[in-house]
């Protein structure tokens, strides 16, 4: 799968946002990747709601058009009072904004490239455009595009309003040093209710680039007291993780192990023959996959293979599954990826394994959260994305947890640690549910399990399972 990234510089993004307001841009189409054709444009951009075009030329102009309407190829003129053309050039401090001529259509919704009258993009399915100032919009050609009609790049973004801050957070979090210390202490002193199980095993599952390995590194850093990078993380289009890895977390350099093992896997990809195989996932659930097993793209792990562990105990099994999703890409989940998640959820439910969903990169998804992480449960946008994930993946909203991984920081941050520790506490709560359900799921094993239960067991008080207020 090709990596599709924005061609806008930070300054260009800032100027474009000054025209669009408090919005999030989702890159739908990039002509250098998808093709400079009308068919490719419509395949990626039809029925996407409000969109903005960004066209680039060799003169250094970034220009295009915004519409609040859908592209549907209805072959009719579309009226849109909110539509406008714009231009951003390096020599100007402010972007040029051109509104439509009153009473005229904003664009003609045809099967060719986007046709705004004054600007007709992807003309003849080539990296070029037509310029007709006065047709629907009035501008000076030199100011709009420098009279350079060849395109070096052409992109389309969906424009999604972010909303403001809720008057009351939809979850209550104490953002204090005491809260951080209490959470860390509760996690370090965790004990399962089964005497022979000393560490909860949690499996991280998610698409390529969602932040699974970065989540482990962040948790490890928070407990270690400094930034670490034990798990390989990156931004490649293919999964950086190609092995099954089990990671133990140490409380401080050379310190004792935290009673939690985080297991990392290959990233999920939408195609059936790419990324983590569901049969491999089931083998991981059941404890049959050895640490450092190298995943094969051609076939799942066989019982006869060296990486297969035949004799397993409850210690080897997965006690909680955590789905990891990039908040910035929630709206871009394809049906193929949703179908893959549904198949995984079905297998996971059949094995009775509790599941949690982590929303990563919340600071990148919402500027209000980037300004202050304490806004994460007051952000209308983050709450909306949490609900979308809950509905599309069939996971209760109470199991959806926003987090921020460490990515570019050199120092730890109290608020980041609190969100991370809150997520870990919920994982341990859900692992407890798995242990408690063992008696119910396998009545014949009750007597045997009771032998393993600790008579001196006293569960430390973890955070209560998150309540959610629907606003």
UniProtKB/TrEMBL annotation:
<comment type="similarity">
    <text>Belongs to the IFI44 family.</text>
</comment>
<dbReference type="InterPro" id="IPR027417">
    <property type="entry name" value="P-loop_NTPase"/>
</dbReference>
<dbReference type="InterPro" id="IPR006571">
    <property type="entry name" value="TLDc_dom"/>
</dbReference>
<dbReference type="InterPro" id="IPR006073">
    <property type="entry name" value="GTP-bd"/>
</dbReference>
<feature type="domain" description="TLDc">
    <location>
        <begin position="2"/>
        <end position="160"/>
    </location>
</feature>
<dbReference type="Pfam" id="PF07534">
    <property type="entry name" value="TLD"/>
</dbReference>
<dbReference type="GO" id="GO:0005525">
    <property type="term" value="F:GTP binding"/>
</dbReference>
<dbReference type="Pfam" id="PF01926">
    <property type="entry name" value="MMR_HSR1"/>
</dbReference>
<dbReference type="GO" id="GO:0006955">
    <property type="term" value="P:immune response"/>
</dbReference>
<protein>
    <submittedName>
        <fullName>Interferon induced protein 44c2</fullName>
    </submittedName>
</protein>
């Amino acid at each position: 799968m090709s990596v599709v990234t924005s061609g806008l510089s930070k300054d260009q993004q800032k100027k474009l946002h000054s025209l669009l307001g408090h919005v999030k841009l989702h890159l739908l189409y990039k002509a250098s990747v998808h093709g400079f054709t009308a068919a490719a444009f419509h395949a990626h951009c039809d029925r996407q709601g409000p969109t903005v075009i960004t066209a680039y030329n060799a003169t250094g102009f970034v220009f295009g058009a915004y519409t609040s309407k859908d592209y549907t190829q209805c072959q009719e003129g579309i009226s849109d009072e909110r539509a406008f053309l714009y231009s951003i050039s390096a020599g100007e401090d402010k972007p040029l904004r051109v509104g439509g001529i009153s009473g005229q259509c904003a664009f003609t919704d045809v099967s060719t490239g986007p046709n705004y009258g004054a600007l007709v993009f992807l003309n003849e399915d080539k990296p070029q455009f037509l310029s007709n100032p006065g047709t629907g919009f009035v501008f000076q050609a030199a100011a709009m595009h420098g009279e350079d009609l060849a395109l070096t790049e052409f992109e389309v973004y969906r424009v999604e309003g972010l909303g403001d801050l809720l008057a009351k957070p939809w979850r209550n979090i104490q953002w204090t040093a005491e809260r951080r210390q209490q959470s860390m202490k509760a996690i370090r002193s965790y004990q399962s209710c089964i005497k022979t199980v000393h560490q909860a095993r949690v499996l991280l599952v998610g698409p390529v680039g969602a932040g699974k390995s970065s989540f482990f590194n962040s948790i490890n850093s928070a407990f270690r007291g400094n930034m670490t990078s034990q798990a390989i993380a990156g931004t490649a289009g293919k999964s950086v993780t190609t092995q099954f890895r089990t990671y133990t977390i140490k409380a401080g350099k050379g310190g004792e192990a935290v009673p939690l093992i985080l297991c990392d896997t290959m990233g999920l990809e939408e195609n059936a023959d790419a990324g983590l195989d569901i049969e491999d996932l089931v083998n991981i659930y059941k404890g049959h996959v050895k640490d450092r097993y190298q995943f094969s793209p051609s076939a799942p792990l066989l019982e006869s293979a060296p990486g297969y562990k035949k004799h397993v105990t409850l210690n080897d099994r997965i006690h909680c599954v955590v789905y990891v999703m990039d908040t910035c890409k929630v709206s871009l989940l394809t049906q193929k990826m949703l179908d893959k998640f549904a198949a995984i959820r079905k297998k996971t439910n059949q094995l009775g394994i509790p599941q949690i969903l982590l929303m990563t990169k919340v600071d990148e998804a919402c500027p209000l959260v980037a300004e202050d992480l304490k806004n994460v449960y007051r952000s209308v946008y983050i709450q909306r994305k949490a609900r979308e994930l809950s509905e599309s993946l069939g996971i209760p909203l109470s199991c959806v947890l926003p987090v921020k991984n460490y990515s570019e920081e050199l120092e730890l941050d109290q608020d980041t640690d609190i969100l991370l520790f809150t997520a870990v506490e919920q994982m341990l709560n859900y692992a407890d549910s798995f242990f408690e359900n063992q008696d119910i799921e396998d009545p014949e094993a009750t007597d045997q399990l009771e032998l393993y239960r600790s008579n001196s067991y006293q569960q430390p008080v973890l955070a209560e399972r998150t309540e959610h207020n629907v606003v």
